[in-house]
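Q: I'm writing up a methods section and want to include an example of the input and output format. Could you take the sequence below and give the corresponding predicted structure tokens, formatted cleanly so I can copy it straight into the document?
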Amino acid sequence: MFIRMIGVFEVRDDAGHDRTPRGSKARALLALLSRTPGHRRPRRWLEARLWSDRGQEQASGSLRQALTELRKALGPLAVRLTSDRDCVCLSGVTTDLDRDPALARQALAQGREFLEGIDVVDAAFKAWLAEERQRVAAELGDSHRQDLPALAPFTLRLADLPEGTEAAIARDLAAAIARLTAEYLLGETNRRAVPGDRLAAGFDLQLEGAWSEDRAYLRVRLVDQANQKTLWSQRLVASRVGEGRGAASTVVFEATEAQLM
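A: Here is the clean output for your methods example:
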């Protein structure tokens, strides 16, 4: 079983036939298992990521329905998805991150995202997804820089965010900025444009902006720590979006006016 994680999510059997489930929760379930070492998770853990807003009994029933849908979509591959009263396990699976990390890295640099199009509105899944996108960027970045000097840690300056910005919004904002910066640093053209001594010195990420009603207008700068010169800047428009009564708001970002200095 092959699963594509970068770009549009898809599942293929060994003959290349499409076995991708239609439902977002079924796709997310495969993604959660695929990104787990050993590909095994407790049922309660999966329920807490996909149905965190439901009671225990309802969440358990939803997980059973998702497993049924997933087995139907997988067809002959369904034998690789096993479960008992405590855990769900996936076997015999490989992903594009494992098979061809160079191609996955190139797709990220071209603007594709980890798990595009999986529209699960659960806040717990969105938090997992944001963390996993950062982890994937770090994994691909580490292998890409085997021949480069070690980088100093980035400093993400969020002090200039307007008063009252929620922690969840700050987290989503940090994830978006990290992705934009990784795309710049990992791109072949930009990697050649940034000398090795700059890479060794490290960078600061600086952020400034203000909210106007439900939108924020932000500017991100990548600054060389060695000489405090701005290497790259990006403007972001952030829209605050609510997902229903009682749901935490999130932020949708639109990147504009990228500029190399």
